[in-house]
Amino acid sequence: MKNWIKHIIFWILYSIFLFFIFDLFSDFKTSIIRTFYIVSSQIIVFYVNLLWILPKIYENKRYALYVFLNLILIAISFYFNSFLEKFTPHYLEHNDAFHRFELNSINIENMYTNVISVILVVFVSFFLFAFQKRQQQDAKELAIISAEKTFLIQQINPHFLFNTLNNIYFLTYKKAPKGAEAIMQLSKMLDYSLHGENLESVTISDEIEYINNFISLFKLKDSSLDSIQFDYSKVDSKKRIAPLLLIPFIENAFKHGNIETSKNSFIKINLKSVENELIFQCVNTFNPNKIVDKTHGIGIKNVSRRLELLYAKNFDLQIEKEKNEFLVTLKLKLND
User: Fold this and answer.
1) Which architecture characterizes domain 142-333 according to CATH?
2) Which residues have a Cβ under 8 Å from the Cβ of 84 and sit 6 or more positions away?
3) What is the pLDDT of residues 38-64, one digit of tens each?
4) Per-position pLDDT tens, the chain of length 336
5) Would you kindly state where each structural domain of the chain is located, as residue ranges?
6) Residues 6+ apart with CB under 8 A from 145
7) Bridging pattern class, strands 277-285 and 240-241
8) Within 10 A of 37 (CB to CB), how many other CB atoms are there?
9) For the chain: N or C, fewer Cβ within 10 A?
C-alpha cells in the first residue's frame, strides 16, 4: 500500500476516534466543528514539519529557526482553533462563562485541547522523519552490501574457471579421451554456479554435490590420485548455507597443494555439523617453492569478505600454516 493511502486512512480513523471522544461530552455539531479544526491544524503542522521544516531547516542544523517556526505554527493553530470554537453551540450556550476571546482570558481547557495536541504532532512528525531517514540509510547500506555480495560471488566464477580450464587444457593437450567428459562435468558445475548466484542460500547437500563434482573433474587428469579425502558422513545435509562458500578453500588446496608431485602429499576435507553449527576443515600439504599464477589468494580474500557480510559475528575462520601443511577451519552458526 502506498504511503499516501496509509496517511489518508490514518487521518480518517483518527478523526472518527476524536469525534466520538468529543461527542461523549458535548453535542453533535460542537463535536464536528472541534474535530474539524483540531485535525485540520494538526495536519497542517504535521506536513509542514515533515515536508519542509525538518528536511530543509532541521537537516541543515538550523535548530533555533526550527524551534522558532514551530512556536509560530503552534501559536497560529491555537488562535485559529480558538476562533472556530466561538462558532460551536457549546460556546454560544455558555457565552457568559467564556466571555469574548481575548489574550488574557485564554481558557485552560482550550489550551490543553489545542496547544498540547499540536505540540504532540510536532514530536510525532519529528520521530516519523527520523524513522524514515533511518529506513533510507538502512536501504542504502543494504543496497551497497547486496551489490558487494553479488560482485564477490560473481568473482568466484572466473577464479573457478581459470583453475578448471587448466585441467581441461591438460586433458586435451594430452589428447586424453576424458576431455569431453570433463567439459560435460564443467557445464554442470557452471549451471550450479549461475543458479546459485541468484539464491540467498542452498542446502548443504547441493554444496556437497558441487564439491564432489569439482574433485571428480580434478581426478580426470589422473585416476590414480587417491590421496584426496572428502568426509561428509556426519553433516546434516538439509541445513542451508550461502552458495559457493566452501569451494574457494578447496580450490586453493588443489591449486597450491602438491598431490601431483609428491607421494606423501594429501588433501583432506571434512564437513560435519554439531547441533546448530557447521564445521568445515580442509588440510593439504604444499611445496613452499611451488610457483603459482598471479591469482594467488583471490578465493580466500573473496570468501572471507562474504563471510563478514553474510554471517557477521556468527562465524569463526582460522587459517594456519605449519611446515608443509596448510589448514583451514571454518565454523558457521546456522539458522534452524
Assistant:
1) 2-Layer Sandwich (3.30)
2) 33, 36, 37
3) 888 888 889 998 888 998 888 888 889
4) 567 888 888 888 888 887 888 777 777 777 777 778 888 888 888 999 888 899 888 888 888 998 899 888 888 887 777 776 666 665 555 554 444 444 334 455 555 667 778 888 888 888 888 888 887 776 666 555 555 555 555 555 555 566 566 666 666 656 656 666 666 667 667 666 666 656 778 889 988 988 888 888 777 766 556 788 999 999 998 899 888 888 888 888 888 887 777 778 899 999 999 888 999 999 998 877 665 555 444 567 777 887 887 888 889 999 998 878 899 999 999 876
5) 3-106, 142-333
6) 309
7) unpaired
8) 21
9) C
Task: Report pTM.
Answer: 0.53
**Distance separating alpha carbons of residues 219 and 40, to the nearest angstrom:** 77
Residue 333: CB partners within 8 Å, gap ≥ 6? 276, 277, 311, 314, 315
Which three cell numbers, joined as nine digits, stand for 77?
A: 493553530
